[in-house]
Amino acid sequence: MAGSFFRLFITLFLFNILAIECVYGATVQNFQGGTGQTGYVLSQYGSAPGASVVSGTIRMLSGVGNQRNVIAFNRSDIGKYSRIVAQWDMNIGSGADGYNFSLLNTASYGVSGARGDISYEEEPVLTNSFSVAFDIYCPDDYQRLGSHEISLHLNGVERANKHCSLDYRESNRHVNLEIDFVAGGAEITLAVGGTVVYDKYFLAGLFPYESRVAFGARTGGIATSLNLDNINVVYTEPVTQVEAPVVVRTFDKKFVNMNYRDVSQNFNFPPAGQVYERVVMKFTVEEPANGWDPWDRLMNISIWDGGTRYEIARFMTPYSKAGTWYVDVTDYQIFLNGNRKMSMFCDTWINEENKGYLFTTEFEFYKGNPTRKVIGIQNLWVGTPMYGDLNDQTMSGFFTDKSITIPSNATGSKLRFMVTGHGQRPNADNAAEFLVRSRTVTVNGSSYSNILWKNDCYLNPCRPQGGTWTYSRAGWAPGDMVTPWEIDISNKAAAGSVAAIDYTAEPFYNATPDWGNVSRHWVESQIVFYQDIYAPAMMLDLAMDDNAGMQVSDSSGNGFNGEMTNMDSSTAWTTGAKCGALTFDGINDYVEIPGFKGIPGSGPRSCSAWIKTNKAGGQIIGWGDNVATGTRWVVRVNATGTLRVEIYNGYLFGNTVISDGKWHHVAVVLPDDGSPDVTEALLYVDGVRDTIAGQLSARVNTNANNTVKLGVHLPLSANYFSGQIDDARIYSRALSQSEIIAMYNEVAMAADFNNDGIVNIADFATLSQHWLSQYNDLNCDGIVDITDLSLMANWWLSVR
User: Helices 786-799 and 2-20 meet at what angle, rounded to 10?
Assistant: First the structure.
């Protein structure tokens, strides 16, 4: 009775608060008035007129020179999130200069109010914030692809710049931006008018932060117009903290010039055996005390394994310009462990007055759960063959056919070619630096071709530079990392087979060779062998969100949909711990998964579900049968009301009671040590490792004689489950404790609105400022209303 009174009190309390003030969980503005619109502030920092609402859109620029206008929205969602999706409509004219979309860091810019002035909106310099800039002006000497560029900026530094193949000027264009925070940074996907410009582009160093939305637009001496409309920014998947990486600094302001062109040194990396989800190399170039080597020079960075050198990154120095670059070197963590020799080569010939470069390399190791690991890397062709001699004898003699045996334990492999062309006038056709030529790789008869050419050098964020930095080149640009050509050959060369590999450059004859600057290709190529760690990972995911019918949809992607048996669809569907759930009557209700017979043998596995029951003994999920010891696998509620996993002639059960009529997240994890015993299984209740109350040892050897079932294990048992089951999952690997906690927190922390890791009364007060976000749709009906408040109060009382 007390619980019901408190539940009613909380619901009415929140309802009264929300009637007074609503801050919406998504930034929404259509400039047509009405409810549900996020508040904003307009600021004018240049010529009149300022930004204003005209005919249901916000007019940021109106064809007047030297305008600079900003719209900054109030914070709409509290805390940090692992995914942000932003959409808006734009109509920008030709001219100059452009605008930006920014996620202002509230720690630097507050939760509301004006953003403040900056000089160039198309090149935004915003503290600790991420921006996307749209630049529609390109000076004549830079004009290569057209004046419609889109760049990414972080903490005031331009980190990437791409040409949009769609001319987005003079038309209404819809913009879709997706930011997914991952280990070591974020993946950026951006499309304009359906044309993808960035596709999961990895931006190192962009980590979750609390933000609010702003747009800034500018014109210079040349003017343009800009209207924005239908702004919608949604934050999902809250995060509480980001674990700092393990950082190893190797070369530290290492001076390089003609006398120190090739430097090597041993460094201590993390110990072998630690697997990281991502390894990022941070590379910095600075000016030495006596000045720069003024030319663009070839350089690379390598790691050694015994007596073999492997190039891990290639860089071309800028024309007298400092900067920092980031390279994903995760594949090479097979070598980045223990005490290792590392080398750096720079092809500089400057010796006057001790000029040169200062280079710093720093490695950031991010923990996580990679889906695959590198089990081997083998060099293929390494060297600098001359390009253009008669009949290409040097080139063809260098690229002799390779026959590579794929390891028997590899589940995938790829080729990586780092090739750049060098040499120029008086070589014919400016070979090979400014020579456009194709190349073809053949693997077991299948061919892959591309052009060794980089035509967007002028978009290099390291700008402005001197020299010829804007001109296209044979695979490289001054002041930029070289992007390797990678070819996945997993489906062309199976494990244990031999891969026949051939590389052919388009024929070329250099009629006027300059033997002092020979036309050549600098080649470093490798084959990389992978092994899937966790794949296939999720085998079954019954979210129980169908809410109607007799089928339970599998969202794992494997198509193992469940079929309800002896159940009434009009009464079985109910509200769960996470959106919908199924009610089992404890008499004869169950769900069968046709075609899926679970994880066989002694293979690793994880089973999880949200359950709510007041009956001891019900079976949650299982498969196999009792042919021999170990051939059955069942996760159930023990007779003592605790979590139990049992096989034929063996079992393990815990201490925490789960038959108390409250929602609990349960998980059973079986690691694979080659001969796993049921007593080696790990039991989790509400994200916490359970202590063991009883066990009987027996080796796991599950057979495939029965399909997976929820609510009972048939035909050998009639111990039906009584209560609700939600979000049932099966994985073909052993989940880590952090992954179990994350699954629990998907629901348990749904009410942790102040992100302090605790669900308590403070979260209800925070909710009053956090209302109507997509994340608060607790019953998943697409509407956030008073029903969700009641559900949250009910849930909070039962499982807090």
Answer: 140
